[in-house]
Amino acid sequence: MRRSLSERLNDIREAALDLVAIVATLDDGAFHALPNADRIAYRALKNALSELGEAVKTLPREVTERYTDIDWRGFAGLRDVVAHGYFGLRQDLLSPVVREEVPRLLAAVEAELKRTD
User: Fold this and answer.
1) Alpha carbon of 1 to those of 33, 57, 66, 68: distances in Å?
2) What pTM was estimated for this model as a whole?
3) Over the stretch 86-99, which tens digit does the pLDDT of each residue have?
4) Which of 49, 58, 59, 90 is in the most buried spot, having the most CB atoms within 10 Å?
5) Which residues span the domain enclosing 15?
6) pLDDT tens-digit readout, 3-50
7) Geometric angle at alpha carbon 27, from 26 and 32, rounded to 5°
């Protein structure tokens, strides 16, 4: 069964909200220590990134073209890095994505969900 656009957008929204919640209470030091200090949070972070990226890959071009300030290809590619990088994620590169770019992505998805209602 093919998922609708609103279902895909909600998939992205839920993953983005999870990412925001995971990092909300972490300072940079705690974020960088995740792989060793909190394996469950680290795995949740990786899972949310993977789900988000997979859902981004399914969005129609007309949606992604409306929000040119979002790096849609980067999010789709990040899914592949997470899925195939296994234990080699670079926290120093991941932190700005999760802290800065995910909230912008979330805002775009929220705006698009309002358009589809």
Assistant:
1) 40, 17, 27, 30
2) 0.90
3) 566 777 778 889 99
4) 49
5) 5-116
6) 899 999 999 999 999 999 999 988 889 988 888 888 899 889 999 999
7) 85
Q: Please name which of 34, 40, 51 lies closest in space to residue 92, comparing C-alpha atoms.
A: 34
Where b means 16+ CB within 10 Å and e means fewer, 29-57 reads: eebbebeeebeebbebbbebbbbbbbbbe
Burial zone of 112 (CB within 10 Å; 0-12 exposed, 13-18 middle, 19+ buried): buried
Alpha-carbon dihedral 91, 96, 97, 100, rounded to 10 degrees: 150
- Give the residue carrying structure tokens 């030091």: 29
The pair of structure tokens assigned to 52 is 């988000």
Place of tokens 């770019």: 101
